[in-house]
UniProtKB/TrEMBL annotation:
Membrane topology annotation: Peripheral membrane protein
InterPro entries in alphabetical order: Tim10-like (IPR004217), Tim10-like_dom_sf (IPR035427)
Protein name: Mitochondrial import inner membrane translocase subunit
Assigned GO CC terms: mitochondrial inner membrane
Signal peptide stretch: none
Boundaries of every Tim10-like domain copy: 17-77
Summary of the function given for this chain in its UniProt record: Mitochondrial intermembrane chaperone that participates in the import and insertion of some multi-pass transmembrane proteins into the mitochondrial inner membrane. Also required for the transfer of beta-barrel precursors from the TOM complex to the sorting and assembly machinery (SAM complex) of the outer membrane. Acts as a chaperone-like protein that protects the hydrophobic precursors from aggregation and guide them through the mitochondrial intermembrane space.
Record has Protease as a keyword: no
Pfam families (UniProt xref): zf-Tim10_DDP
């Protein structure tokens, strides 16, 4: 016979681990995107960003955010449909 309280604790622990894994993946993605945008946009670091570099970085960040939101929304739709 299984203990319902223990099952609830295990379930909650699994949920917390999944949340932390997702946070770690997001942090890794942000780090990666920062490297990509930096390499793509910054020719030579200086004390100020020129307008071309600033525009490039803004566009790169916006593409990253749009892509991340699109993926997140798609996963939410899949979860709402019961994983199908």
């Amino acid at each position: 016979m299984e203990d319902p309280e223990r099952e609830a604790d295990v379930s909650e622990l699994q949920r917390l681990v999944a949340v932390e894994e997702q946070r770690a993946r997001l942090a890794a993605q942000v780090h990666n995107f920062m490297e990509v945008c930096w390499e793509k946009c910054v020719d030579k670091p200086g004390s100020k960003l020129d307008s071309r570099t600033e525009t490039c970085l803004a566009n790169c960040v916006n593409r990253f955010i749009d892509t991340t939101l699109s993926i997140t929304n798609r996963f939410a739709q899949i979860i709402q449909k019961g994983g199908h």
